[in-house]
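Hello again, I could really use a second opinion on something today. Take your time with it, there's no hurry, and the full record follows here:

___
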Amino acid sequence: MQEQRGETFLGLMLRSIVHEMKRQQEGRGAPDITLFDVLSAMRSPDSARRYKLLLARQFGDMANSSRDWTAHTVPVLISERNKVALKVLERTISQG
């Protein structure tokens, strides 16, 4: 499917970098996680929780980033992953 759409790993990576640069210029990107953030979480008594918060911030930013895609620009890996995830969700809901 990636071949049919002309998607390559390098192409997706470059598109992602350009997209992220635009988002940050427009002030829509989450602040990057810095070495200070990681070290601070590491030294914290509740380090597991702090790491999860850092990860959640990145996931939230990724979700916001994906809202900028149109149906024609969503990479095959993501669109196919979403289809499988929805099938699993539907099956789980139907099982109660």
Q: What stands out?
A: Residues 2-94 form one domain.
